[in-house]
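Database export, one record per block. Field names are fixed; values are copied verbatim from the stored entry.
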Amino acid sequence: MNKIKDDILSLRAQARAARYLALKTWEKEEAKDRQMDNVTSFVLGIAVALIVGIGYQIHILGAL
């Protein structure tokens, strides 16, 4: 009976460790994705600002 109980406790500990490692791996991937999203958003925001600014200048110069 003790052998079975020890095996169950061992399996529970292994499962807990596996879940912990999976969670940490997932958190690292999420952090990488979040950083990549922030950089992409910044670059696209600058690009849109430049396009709008150039379009506005063309509009002003064309109106003169």
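Remark 1: The two ends are 94 Å apart (CA to CA).
Remark 2: The helical segments are 2-63.
End of record.
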